[in-house]
Amino acid sequence: MPSAELGPISDYSENTPAKASGGGREFVVVRRGEGAFVLDHACQHLGAPMSDGLVEGDTLVCPWHRAVYALGTGALLEPPGCNQQRAYKTQVKDGILIASWEEDEAPHPAPPMASAGSDKRRFGILGAGAAGLTAAEALREYGFEGEIVLVDGEESSPYDRTKLSKGLVEEDEVPRLRGERFLAQHDISPLRATVTVIDLPSRTLQFEEGEDLHCDGLILAPGSEPRRLDLPGADLQRVVTLRSAADALTLKDYVQGAKRAAVIGSGFIGMELATVLRNQDLPVTIVARDEIPFEKILGERIGRRLRREQEEAGVTYAGGAEIEEFEGEEQVRAVNLKDGRRIEADLVVMAVGVSPRTDLLNVEKEEDGGILTDAALRLPDVEGVVLAGDIAHLPGPWGPIRVEHWRWAQQLGRLAARSLLGQEVAYEGAPFFWTKQQAPGSYVYFGHAEGFDEIRYEGEPDAGKDFAAYYFKDGKVMAVFGHGMTDSLSALERRMAREGPLPAEVAAGASA
Length: 512
Prior knowledge:
With 512 residues, the chain is α/β, with parallel strands linked by helices. The protein folds into four domains: 3-100, Rieske Iron-sulfur Protein; 122-225 and 355-420, FAD/NAD(P)-binding domain (3-Layer(bba) Sandwich), CATH 3.50.50; 239-351, FAD/NAD(P)-binding domain, CATH 3.50.50; 440-507, 2-Layer Sandwich (Enolase-like, domain 1). The strands form ten sheets. Strands 31, 32, 33, 34, 35 and 36 form a six-stranded antiparallel sheet that branches. A five-stranded parallel sheet has the order 13-12-11-17-29.
């Protein structure tokens, strides 16, 4: 069994992650008394240095995207990501810490899963995005031995949708979450088909072609559709949206030879796309209704900071914009605004939000098209059907909320699997997302604040430095948005995941 000496155990501080090297590998070491936990140093999700992470109890929190791992086993306790963190066997000999491993051990092992067995039930999952795939794997993790059919109309699924707005991808670089071989190994059957009817009482999916699929249990996680503006010229060539892998490949092709681009919308996807296109040395204009992006969501100071970062990177921000038409004959040439401004662009990306794919569900819908469930993601008066991902309005500490973030989708996928297996469950966590903008590092947001009475700031958001913004409603901290401050924000996110909205004291020292 290969091994590596990682130095004197006395060199490591108690409960403080530290990087170590040996045997051609890099490790993160967390000393506990006279022993230590040792895991791979690079996070299984996107390679974050786990020595910069936070130790909380018997867990280690990733410093970038807050995946949570069990120190003893490397098990993934909270997403993002699909795999475990490899954990090493350790011993201390003559005061020297030694880590050992099996020669053929996978660097980022999948969690242990059951295989199909004597269980005759069939569970169908509609949607192979983050929620649907996670639900399929979770069913196997929790011991389900029946048939699992993963239904999706996209040939490239399942893949990591979050990466599509953070960089251009080649056809052979679509960021797949799992391959066909993995699904086959774990008896998860992919079905590429377009669903035309969902019969909830009988738990049956009907398709454009082929036989109906009747299921003993259904998990519905169809995701969302990108919105398109219904304006003259919206159907011109090179006016695109970005939601699927096919969209991303089309965008990659269109960038080649483009002279000027316009991004319609100043949300996080729009901002990320502007960053990506500007990094291709392409002149970019963000066309937005708001003069200050995110002012209603994050406040004026942070909105100004995000706009300023884009403009300092060379992006033009056209605020106060109301679009009249997309100009062109066959191919787009410009975006014309009602105030007379003309923005030249031979590539236009609409980033104006998404709508949940609930058209086929004959149940009452919320104003935004989502569907209200109970705490276990079940529909009232419908047996054996649960929802997950973008379409679900889930009750919890913040009230009924619907979230379109990747981590939330994975969390709800696991919750849906447990619910379908008959467990009484409820969401325990805090909605969390990250975004990569022009500034180095990532911004993070956790909690949920549809409105706020007050914002208090720790640090200097106006000066381009690290900061945290606390969003208050009725005396409680409902959400936090920040940059940097890794340990304190990680600890606060973990606390909010346990407790929900937090008391005002957590923002002690912050100023209005």
